[in-house]
Amino acid sequence: MNELIETLKQNKIDFEILKLTHNDVLIDGYTEINHLYLVQTGIFKIYEYHKNGKISLIQYLESGDLIGELGLLGVENQKKVIISHGNSTVIKVSENDYAQKLKINPVFLNYLAVNLATKLLSRTHHFTEMQQYKLKPRVLRHIQKTHIDGIIDENFTYLAQYLGTSYRHLMYTLKELIEEGIIEKCEKTYRIKSIEKLTNEIHKHEV
Length: 207
Description:
By secondary structure, this protein is α+β, with helices and mostly antiparallel strands. The chain has helices at about 1-10, 70-75, 95-100, 105-130, 135-145, 155-160, 165-180, 195-205, and strands at about 15-20, 25, 35-50, 55-60, 65, 80-95, 150, 185, 190.
């Protein structure tokens, strides 16, 4: 990521650093303008709106990931809704600068290729995990990776779909984690009660 940022500076490509807070929308899915974003810190969630009106949570993006590259490459017509999960920062490059300067840069093209391959492997791994592991260890791992200062702030209907289970099964699993002293109920969401127990349970299941 640092090499890419240095490339932007060396090629005098203007970029803007955007700071977002929890649940801020980076892309609303309806804009006609494409920009390229590089996740600097934090996590982003990608939602897809289907023609039948339903919504799916399809991926989490982390530091170093690119956002908007598929639209700029012309291979994605339907834009996704992308929301910050916790506090985050992104580097924004305009569509014009991308087209005129960045898309022919060998350093960027190499970064783009690696990023696309990494995303593909990540999604493939996610789907194979759903087939090979029970829900509980996958929920534990998800909590470890995506909690916000110990808070598990999710739409659990969407999260259940993402984890390939039913809402009822997910709620039962969270209840089980409460009984084991790993998490606790906090108003409408949950909080990690014991990081040590969470970590030990993950190691136990070897996820």
